[in-house]
Design goal:
The chain is of the alpha+beta class and 244 residues long. It contains seven helices and eleven strands. It has one domain.
Length: 244
Amino acid sequence: MSIEGKIIPNAGDGGGEASVSPRLTRRHLLMGGALLAVSGLALARTPKQRYPALSDKQFEALFPRHFANWRTMTASELVMPPESEMANKLYQHILTRTYVNDQGVAIMFLAAYNNVQLNNVQLHRPEVCYYASGFSIDMSRPYDVPLGSGETIAARAVKATMGSRDENILYWTRIGEEMPQSWAAQRISMTKANLEGYLADGLLLRMSIISPNTEQALQQMVGFVKEMLAHSGNRTRSLMTGIA
């Protein structure tokens, strides 16, 4: 048989290769169904983003500039995360302020946030930043911040020293609904969120006072936190502490 001058051999000609039609067997159908099921399960188990992105203006507005007897100043000596491409990926927002009260106590305040935490994009813990900036880390220990009514924030207290500068740091990280107090616990919190089907957000909230008296500085920062929360809305409270 010919079409437009081309010879197409018949299957029974014997002089040409016979065309073979693929046959769908029961085995093929079972394999295809299994692959579809695996693909569907993988898609269903892919963690979903739970926390919406915030603009810089929205994020900054969450933290009051003035409350109780605290007011902001423009000057700041904050130790910042190292400048690098990775550091820029870690945070969508970094807010820095210095608050001063009527007694002249100055608290350097930093809030860093990313609405999605991934394995290669995680919050820096301040011990790393201070050490990279030339400080020695003289103390780092778990420190629970009491909020009243039985509520606490699982934080860490750190003392960093460089020359004659003694900086007392109080900080915590919130990963989704958890407050991990160590790097290992931070990774566990991320894994738990993924297993529950969502991508956790991440907040680093850090404050510090330059003073040789560590215990007094910690108590001053605890009072600062309580007053800030008391003069903030539910959205700020939820962002800072995970407590609505």
